[in-house]
Design a protein that fits this description.
single chain; 296 residues; mainly beta; Immunoglobulin-like; 5-stranded mixed β-sheet; 1 helix; elongated
Length: 296
Amino acid sequence: MKKMKFFVGAFALVAMVFASCNNEGKNPPVVDPGDGDSTEIPLEDMPHLDDPEAGFVTLAVRAPQGTCNGMVVVGTVNGWGMNEDYAFAKVENTETWYQVTLPYAADMQIKVVAKPEQGELGWNYQWGMNVEGQDPNVELLGTPGCAIDNAENGGEVKLVTFVDASLTYVDVKAWKSEPCTPKNEAGTATWVVKVPATTPETAEVSVVGGWGVEGDAEYWTPGAVVMERQSDGTYTLTKEVPAAFQYKYVVSADGTTWDWAYENGVQFDMPVSLKAEDVVEAWKSEPWATEETPAE
C-alpha cells in the first residue's frame, strides 16, 4: 500500500511539472477575486498570449462596445503622430480583444486611440478618462507590465513605466468620444448653448473646432468664431460646417483674451441634424474669477 501511495504521489508531481513546462513562455491572465482571498483566479474570457521577445512589449486590449474599426497606438513609439504605424490586430477566437507588439524603450509612453468609422483619427477618440472619485475607464488586469498615469488634463490616461518583454492586459470601458456613431454631413449648422449661471452677461463664448484643416486661421482657434448672446442668457450661432465635425466651447471675460484654460471640458460631435443644443455645466476655470479680498 505504501508503494502504491508513493507511485500515485510521484505521478501527480510529474504531471504538475509537465503542466508547468507547457505554460512556459505564456502569461496566463489572472485577477484577484476581490473577496479578501489572495488566491488569484483566471478571468475566463481573457486570451492566453505568448510573452514577447526581449526588446518588445505586447498589449492586449479589451475594446468597449462601439468599436467598429479597430484602434491604434499613439505615443513615443511613433513620435505622438496620429497615424496607423502601430495598429492593433484582432485576437483570434475572441469578439472584443485586440493585440499589438511594440518596440520597448525604458521611457516609453503610449495611449490607445479608436479608428473612427468616418473622418480622421483624433485625440477625441482616445480611451476614456480616469477621473478621481469616478469609476475608471481604463484598467490593467492580471499582473501588468506597465503602470497608468492619469495626471494629465484632468484624467487622460497614458501607460508608462514599461517592463521589457512584458505582456499587459487592459480593459477599456469607453472611448472619450464614440468612434462609430453616425456623423454629420457638411452643411449649415446651428447652435444653442446654455452656460453656467456664474457666466456674466459681458462674457463672450466661442465655438472652437475643426473649421477646415490644421493651419487655417479658424482651425481649433479660441475666439475665431464667436457666438451671439440672447436675452435668455443662451448663446447661439449659425455657420457652414464640414462633415464629421467636432467642437468645444471656450469662454472669455471680455471677448479679447482667449485661452484653452477656460473651455467647457467636453468635446461634442455635431449632430446629424446639424442642430446642436448643448449645456455647459461648468467651465474648466472662470476667467472673471478673482482672488478673495482679504478680510479687514
